[in-house]
Every structure is written in C-alpha cells, then in structure tokens.
What we know:
Layout (H helix, E strand, L loop, with lengths): L2 E5 L2 E6 L9 E5 L8 H7 L8 E5 L12 H7 L2 H26 L7 E6 L1 H12 L4 E7 L5 H12 L7 H9 L13 E7 L4 H13 L4 E5 L19 H17 L3
Parallel strand pairs: 3-4, 3-5, 5-6, 6-7, 7-8
Antiparallel strand pairs: 1-2, 2-4
Helix pairs in contact: 2-3, 3-4
Amino acid sequence: MVITDTAAGVPFTALPPAGGGPAPLVVTWHMMDAPCTDAAFAAALPLTGVAAWRVHLGMPWCGPRSYPEGRELSRRDPMMLYVEPVVRQAAEEFPAALADLRARFPIADAPIGVVGASLGGAVALTVTASGVVPVAALAVVNAAVRASSVVALVAEQSGRPYPWEASSRAAADRLDFVARAAGLDGTALLVVSGDDDYPAFRADAAALAAAVPGARLTTVPGLAHPLAERPGEQPAPPTPQARTVDAAITGWFATHLAT
C-alpha cells in the first residue's frame, strides 16, 4: 500500500512496514535531479527490506510545489537564490511535518533514520547536524556535502562565474558538512557515491566519510548523478544502480536502526 498526502503542508509518499503496525521511521529527501518528486524517489529507493515506515518527503520547488522561476533563480544566484533557500525551507518545515506524521501513523518513539540524495542530502545532513530530532542512522547518496561544490557546478554549466560575497560565503560555510562533521558524530553514517558522479561530489563524499568516525563510504559502479532516468518526475521501476543503492542502505539500516 502506498499512501500519498501532505504533512503540515509538505507532500509525502509513505510506504508502511509489513503489517502496518508500530515500527521505526525512515524519512527521505529526494534529488532536484531525477528522481525529483517524493513519489518518484519512493519508486527508485523503496527500501522494502527496512522494517520501518518509509516516508519520502517532497522537496521545495518540486512536484506540486514546483516553482516556475526556480531554474532561472538557480542560474542567477545558485547560492542565495537556490541552494540556501531550498535547504533552509526543507529543514525548517520538517519538525512540523514529523509531528503530523507521528500523530497519524503508529511510529515507534525511537531515533529515526534519514536518507537524502543530492540537494536532499544537504537537507538530511542539516537535520542530523542540527540535533532537532535524534537520528540513529543516516544515508546520503551523491549528496551535496559542500554547497560550494553545487555553486561551482551550476556556474560551470551556465558559463557564469559566481561572484562570492561575504553573505554567500557564510551561507556556504553553514552548508559545508565536512567542516561540520563534529555535528554528525554519534550517528551511523553511510555515504554512497556513484563512480560516475561529478568529480567534486565524489571528492566531497570521500572527505565526509573520512571526517566522521565510523562512517562508511560505498562506491556504486556505473552510477552517475541521477538515480533515475530524467526527467524523473513520475514513478518508474528502479534502475540496476538504484537497486544497488537500495540494498546498501537497507543493509545499513538493518544494522543501525532500532526495530
């Protein structure tokens, strides 16, 4: 059974555990690349083998909250008009969404698991590092570990060098999770990196795994940046690479997420 609804205004796709009874919670945030909606991400990474409620939250500017001007804003100022506001909104709206989900579903009163891919990875890292809710296990996939790497990528693709200022550098520093690795200590961290992902993202993934005690770095052969075929707005059968990612995260949560 697939449940689609909103929690405190945030769209979600929920997959209940077998039997639908009380169980831990795993929350995910999808990519802005494919898969770029909660429903499509749930299809790409269903995490069926995890004995938990899996709730895939919709990112700002995506799906029913699509922002027509978003692409132009991301090119005009990828740090202050794209990365910073999207990650901040997703992180700030999470506590109310979580409270709504706990009131609605029989979720165990225990630390949760979180998953994030690409820019959704920055959200998962922000939520974990902030300590707003106890996180037992965290998995990120081709994650935006350093906002400055996202900005450099957008600038390269658009052909517009980014004019860093004091405010944008401060915002990027807040979203540099290698520098903020101490805030992730104590959470079981799995870093999944495609060996065909952007070079800067691969380097950041390795640096993050090295900076967090006990973290594991898993490299997936043949995985580029997206986890699904573009445009990735609608649910589709998972690719072979996505199945490999799903298996890695499932195994990680089987060990580190209380049941």
